[in-house]
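A favour, since you know our structure tokens better than I do. What I am after is a single protein written out in full by you. Could you add the entry underneath, on a fresh line?


***
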Amino acid sequence: MSQIKQSIAEKLIQIKAIKLQPANPFTWASGWKSPIYCDNRLTLSFPKVRDFIRDEFVRQIQEHYPEVEVIAGVATGAIAQGVLVAQALNLPFVYVRPSAKAHGMGNQIEGHLPKGKKVVVIEDLISTGGSSLKAVEALREADAHILGMLATFTYDFPLAQNNFKSAKCPLIVLSDYHALLDYAKAVNYVEEEYLETLKEWRENPSQWQQ
């Protein structure tokens, strides 16, 4: 799995889905200052990368959750990749909105999901885990049996680790922040002086200052 994590980190950097700017931090929607920005939706524009991620999701699901009956994607970033995975596995697909629609049928879960089905959830990115686990909660409220979640990338914050543990939701990630830093260091993607800054940020992102 470590080799897969390295390969995906490399691909995400190559297509600029991940950008590292320790000297010129990004501002997240939460207001956090961050030396990294990750937009895995860019993978959809690169067929070889898109297929590589899909195939690895499929392999992990077949290995860990062969009993899966439905694939669910977290809106909006994981809808397309979730569909690709469901298609490859010949399984039904649903997706989960952040909240129920305020009009029409008022659905939060879109698609046909019979009660009691065994579900694997696909996510593109894990930060704190809050929005991802809200999707899990919505699926559980619909009487789905959640086998686990698979995500393309995680910052691997201690907060996220605790949140998934508390929610009793197993999480498998294809790549993570540690693999990213290892690759960035190996290819001199960032200057040596910034590597420690990148490590410090992950430990306490909400309080980090440049």
